Amino acid sequence: MRALSLALRSLAREWRSGELGVLLLALSVAVAALTGVGFLVSRISTAVALQASEVLAADIRLGSPQPVNEQYFEEAKRRGLSTARNTALLSVVFNGERSQLTNLRAVTDGYPLRGHVLIADEAFAAGRQARGIPPPGEIWPDSKLLSAIDVHVGSQVSIGAATFRVGHVLISRPDQGGTFAELAPTLLMNDADLTATQLIQPGSRVSYRALFAGERTRIDEFKTWLSTHKKQGERVHDITDASPQIRNAVERAGRFLSLASLVSVLLCAIAVAMSARRYVHRHLDTVALLKTLGASRAFTLSVNVLQLLAVAIVAAIVGCGVGFLAQEWLLRTLRGLLAVDLPPPSLVPAAIGFMTAIAVLIGFALPPLLQLSRTPALRVLRRDVGPPPPLTLLAFGPAVAVVVFLVYWVVRDWKLFLGFTAGLAGFLLVLALAGALLVFLAGRLRGRVGVAWRFGVANLSRRRSESIVQIVAFGTGIMVLLLLGIVRDDLNSDWRRTLPADIPNYFFINIPPGDRDAFVQFLKDRGAKTARVLPMIRGRLTRIKGRSVEELKFSGEEGENFATREQNLTWATEPGGDNRIVAGEWWKPADYGKPLVSLSTEFQDSLGVNVGDRLSFDIAGEPFDVQVASIRKVKWDSFQPNFFVVFAPGVLEKTAGTYITSANLKPGDARSLSQLARRFPSVSIFDIEDLLAQVRSVLDKAILAVQSVFVFTLFAGLTVLLAAVQSSRDERRFESAMLRTLGARRATVLQGVLSEFTTLGLLSGFLASAGASVAAYFMDTRVLQLHYTFDLWICVEGLVGGALLVATTGWLATRSVVNQPPLKTLRA
Amino acid sequence: MHDVSFDIALGESVAIVGASGAGKSTLLALLAGLDLPSSGRVLLEGQDLARLDEDGRARLRAQRVGFVFQAFHLIPALTALENVMLPLELSGSSSEARSAALNSLERVGLRARTGHYPRQLSGGEQQRVALARAFVTQPAVLFADEPTGNLDTVTGGRVGELLFELNASSHTTLVLVTHDLGLSARCARTIRMEAGRVV
């Protein structure tokens, strides 16, 4: 109680004298960085997930070949979720004598629950957001359907037994999907009109979809309920099964954002360690005096611990507030770039901020405080007497334990944790050694430089251990910032590489063999970049290694699909640049005509077949027995025509089939597309521009999240550097006063300070660039599965950035020291 | 400080004495241009210090003034030699700084301790380095603030001896703030202060 009373009384006094300012600042900034990143990550991750759910037009989608059980809707409504229906069937749409097989989508109010339907008043025009769904009696056909049956907005068309007015042109739906399941032109209509068409008869092939959306936890609970209640043949999708590009983007973003949080945690620790050292240094006299006056060791320790605890609580509150405001400001600034409204942040980051403040203090401030309490009373008479050196285990044990705890808590992945901590430990060791080398070299070089540089460099040399600590802190800070930069650029360029600007934006299928050359020529004449043209034949897998697929059991749903559904098959002479042979060999000309197939890794994995195994296909009623010649890893997101099963040339040529290709056309080249639809009426046009726009939007959001966190971490790093520099302010104040007394101009003193920090920054920067390059190599190749390229500019950036960053921070932190009149310091 | 007015002639040695709080150090700070009076003027070698800006006063100090402090005030990051070279380098005469500094250290008997840092020197040695630093620029005026105050009697006596020897050989004007009666007695004139006034 006495300790608490003294702690609080002296806390107020010390606060007035600015004693605890640095520690409070360091801890606040650390908590602010951590919670700021936490809030940001939680909001953007949720936004990215929401964006991904637009691809389903819902959070959960249930697909069924039968009308969806009403019980599901009732249950969803009971749980406070929104619902909608989407019924799909194929039918022919007529305009007088012209007709077109069309994919009808009958939807109910509320559709889409996530994302937006885009409409326009002309075919292939830029879309605007639709309000609601088509009113009864109205349909929204897509551009291809308009061209195919030559109608426009306001025309009447008939579907089944009913007639409809064309209300708008459907430009895109969020759930048009990344697969080729729906290749026919599409139209959107009101679910209430479906009965009037009389299209749904016993035996009709209709696909019923139930859409559900709502608050995350309720959705998760409902998904569990739905999975246990769904009937056979019903399939439940949520964003985790959304298209692979988006899933990858979310995963990569999540990993990267965790890494960014990790940086804040480490900067936290460094800042607090430096501030704690300063705090202890400044309290040696007080502790000695208290002991002289009869205070016990436990009492002095309690006083200091209670003071720091009070500081930690204040810092956590201030830090959480600043963190929240910082991310709020950042997100407001970026609002124009974000397509979706960001959800409010959860309170979890604030709780984490509080816990972290306490944990970091225990790990990094408690050991020096224990040490402080061992200061002998004799110090009141002999100022050179300090506490005895600490046991290494006690000095570093808690810090290591806290780092391990915090790092694992953030990454939650042992592999990443081990790689990261091992790399970090190695890097810190290298930095410490290099710091010692700098101290040595500084002693050698200072005789050859001017007075200001000598003074600056001599300072590095004299504060040997402090210099090493600062080099380690600066080096780590800069390295992490550089590392984030490299990995961000690599992620960015990998994504850009995945989706280059001239990527095919239209797929064309059902190209009759007779029209093939004319079709390709047509595209070429309009300046389109055409991908390879491959034949496409429908066939069914019948036997695997001699056993009928009906007898076989497959573990995954994908295997079941491969084995039971009709496949698209092709043949090719070359595998294509987006296919990599991972087993077996691609056929040579001598093999043409032999019954060989090449399978994609997905096919191989889900059916458990390998090179040399025998498969049988039924193609247009004719059996084909083939042998697996090779396995290919297919880069599906190349947007080139690709197939799970490729036959050797000379096997399928006599079988009736069509051709498929993809091409890059100028977006919105409505005229060419209309002409194409008229000239090649049987060719189905699949517009992937909208899908690409969705994928790009998600990727851009992920990159934006990464960059925002990067900017935030940059601020955190800078403030931590500021805190580090502040720990030597007292000595600097005295030295500056002495120099001024001896006749140094303000500029000379400033030059000395700048030379010291520039040297420090250059060395930290150099080491940081080297470290960041090595770390980025491992991060890219081992963790993120990206392509790594060494960049010399990183070294230049590290050097220049390090020098500028540290010199500027040093200048900011010591500006008041240089400006202070010398007399004030010398009298103090 | 009130009604303080006096002249110090070139080459004169003056002791400023008085009880603690009498205003001795404030007077010294004003004379050296480390502080400015709220009213009145301080002329150093005919220059009104109030008319110079801070850097101008620093330049004047670098060229014409030397200091010795009670707490020695050596720069801990620099060696004895570097500490002595510092004022020369600051006044722009870097070329002969090294030889002049070695020479000056020789005069205070520390030729053998040039590479040592302040923390490696005794109090007496540190004050001798401070004397070498003060005299190396051959200043017109030397301000000494309790130069023996932090030293034991014997060492203080030796340092005082050295101070007057150097002063005599350099013909420097000496302004000395001290409690040490022995030191003040050796000055040509004594200015006694009491509650901010010269008595």
Distinctive features:
heterodimer, A: 828 residues, alpha+beta, 4 domains, six-stranded mixed barrel, B: alpha/beta, Rossmann fold, six-stranded mixed beta sheet, two-stranded antiparallel sheet, 7 helices
* DSSP, total strands of chain A: 24
The pLDDT mean of chain A sits at: 78
CATH topology of chain B: Rossmann fold
Widest beta sheet: strand line-up of chain B: 4-5-6-1-7-8
Identify the quaternary structure here. Answer: heterodimer
Count of separate structural domains of chain A = 4
Structural class of chain B: alpha/beta
Rg value of chain A: 34 Å
Give the overall shape of chain B, derived from the CA principal axes: globular
Tell me the fraction of residues in β-strands of chain A, as a range. 15-25%
Low-pLDDT residue spans of chain B: none
**Which structural category do the helix and sheet elements of chain A fall into?**
alpha+beta
CATH superfamily of chain B: P-loop containing nucleotide triphosphate hydrolases
Biggest chain-to-chain interface with counts: A-B, 27 and 29 residues
Number of helical runs of chain A? 23
Major sheet attributes of chain B: 6 strands, mixed
